[in-house]
Every structure is written in C-alpha cells, then in structure tokens.
C-alpha cells in the first residue's frame, strides 16, 4: 500500500500547529559595574547633568560654589541675563522701522509735516489719523529712551556681577565618558577582584567555623566575617550573602 501511495501521491504531508514556547529561570547575584566614583566635600553644589545622561571625558557635570554669597550671585546673574533678553526683545519690537535716534527724529518730523499739510489743505479726514500717528511716535520715543536707559543699567550691573563672581565657582569634570548617576546604593566598590574575595564557599567556611546554622546566629557570623574580610568586602554585601546562606 505504501509503495502504491508513493507513486500516486509522492508528496507526504503532515498537520503542523504553530505554538509559542517560553522558558524562564530566576537567580540572584551581584552585578559588577565598571564605575568611577567622583568624591568631594562641598556645601553648595549644582549638578548640571541629568540622571542617566551620557557624558564625555572632560565634561563638567557639576559646579561648586565657594559660599552662600557666591550662590546668590549666580542666581542674580541668571536673573539679569533673562531680564536683559526680555528688555532687548521689547526694544526691538517697539523700534518699528527706525532703530536709532536720528531715525526717530526724522519720523517725528515727517509726521509733523504731514499733519501741517493736512491742516492747510483742509483735509479734515486725515487730520485725526495723523494726530494719532504723531502722538504714538512721541510716546514710543519717550518710552524707548527710558527703556534703553534701563537696559544700560542692567548691562552695567551684569558686568559688575560677572567681575565679582570670577572666582566664585569650581567645575567638577569627569575623567572618562559614560553614563552619569547621582544615586548611591553602597555597591559602588563592587569590582571583579571584590567578587573573587567574596565567594559563597569562603563565607560557608566562616559559617562552619562559628557553628552557625540558622538566622539566629547571624550576629556571630557577621562578627567573624567582618574581621576576616575587612577592607575586602562591604558589610552590606556580606550581610546579604550570609542571610541567603543561612536561610
């Protein structure tokens, strides 16, 4: 029968069902991170990069202020910069088609001439319009002059503050590129050499030496482990591994 079917239907088929299979496992351990710790002591510090931001070698990540007065000056400088930008934008907008004093005077002169011509010719329709235009020019001229004076005062204050603040800050830079993090979790010192020293077998030997068998003996194990691993392993990490071994 098979031989006959082979000649009749040489292609053998089979029913195939598509299915998805998944498998997972859980484990615990220490993640060895290649980190560079940036340490220092300062009362006033401003971190200028974001958490998780990529940084390059030599980049400034924070600024240290020498005193509270230095920090206050930095805030004043920032506020002045914003105010100067705002006033400059207002002046540019109010300036219209003229930019200097000569242009403003010429515009006023032209408006007066036009108004006089309208009065002489009896063009009462345009007199009101020309009067309004002249009043607007005069008002804008007075306002612009006052604003320019205010801008000059701001810029003078800004230059003086910059001069005073010349030695107020110190930059903190990174020696190599990487991902910045300001979160401290106690595992910053975990390195490959560190992990080699901190092995379960080594801790099991310490546990055996103390005769410990349950979590009640945790204190006795930690006492001996801290002495034997002083300077080689962090107490938090030792405690975590010992708890797992005793539980």
Descriptive account of the structure:
With 247 residues, the protein is mainly α. The chain has helices at 2-8, 68-94, 101-121, 124-164, 192-197, 200-210, 218-228, 235-246; strands at residues 44-47, 54-55, 60-65, 169-173, 178-179. The strands form two sheets. A three-stranded antiparallel sheet has the order 1-3-4. Strands 2-5 form a two-stranded antiparallel sheet. Helix content is 55%, strand content 8%. The model has no long low-confidence stretch (mean pLDDT 77). Helix 2 runs antiparallel to helix 4, helix 3 (101-121) packs antiparallel against helix 4 and helix 6 packs across helix 7 (218-228). It is elongated.
Helix content: 55-70%
Q: How many helix segments?
A: 8
> Major beta sheet, specifics?
3 strands, antiparallel
Q: Give the helices and strands as they follow along the chain.
A: HEEEHHHEEHHHH
Determine the structural class based on helices, strands and strand pairing.
mainly alpha
Number of strands: 5
Shape category: elongated
Question: Could you name the key traits of this structure?
Answer:
247 residues, mainly alpha
Task: Briefly characterize the structure.
This protein has 247 residues and is mainly alpha-helical. It has helices at 2-8, 68-94, 101-121, 124-164, 192-197, 200-210, 218-228, 235-246; strands at 44-47, 54-55, 60-65, 169-173, 178-179.
């Amino acid at each position: 029968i098979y031989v006959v079917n082979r000649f009749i239907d040489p292609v053998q088929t089979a029913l195939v069902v598509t299915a998805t299979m998944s498998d997972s496992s859980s484990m615990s351990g220490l993640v060895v991170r290649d980190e560079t710790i940036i340490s220092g002591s300062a009362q006033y510090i401003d971190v200028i990069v974001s958490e998780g931001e990529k940084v390059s070698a030599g980049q400034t990540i924070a600024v240290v202020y020498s005193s509270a007065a230095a920090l206050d000056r930095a805030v004043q400088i920032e506020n002045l910069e914003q105010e100067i930008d705002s006033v400059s934008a207002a002046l540019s907008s109010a300036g219209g088609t003229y930019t200097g004093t000569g242009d403003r005077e010429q515009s006023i002169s032209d408006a007066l001439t036009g108004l006089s011509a309208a009065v002489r010719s009896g063009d009462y329709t345009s007199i009101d319009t020309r009067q309004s235009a002249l009043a607007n020019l005069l008002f804008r001229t007075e306002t612009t002059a006052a604003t320019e004076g205010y801008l000059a005062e701001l810029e003078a204050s800004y230059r003086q503050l910059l001069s005073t603040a010349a030695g107020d800050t110190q930059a903190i830079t990174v020696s190599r590129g990487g991902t910045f993090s300001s979160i401290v979790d106690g595992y910053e010192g975990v390195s490959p050499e560190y992990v080699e020293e901190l092995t379960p077998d080594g801790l099991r030997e310490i546990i055996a030496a103390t005769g410990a068998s349950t979590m009640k003996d945790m204190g006795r194990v930690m006492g001996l482990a801290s002495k034997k691993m002083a300077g080689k392993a962090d107490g938090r990490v030792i405690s975590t591994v010992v708890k797992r071994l005793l539980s």
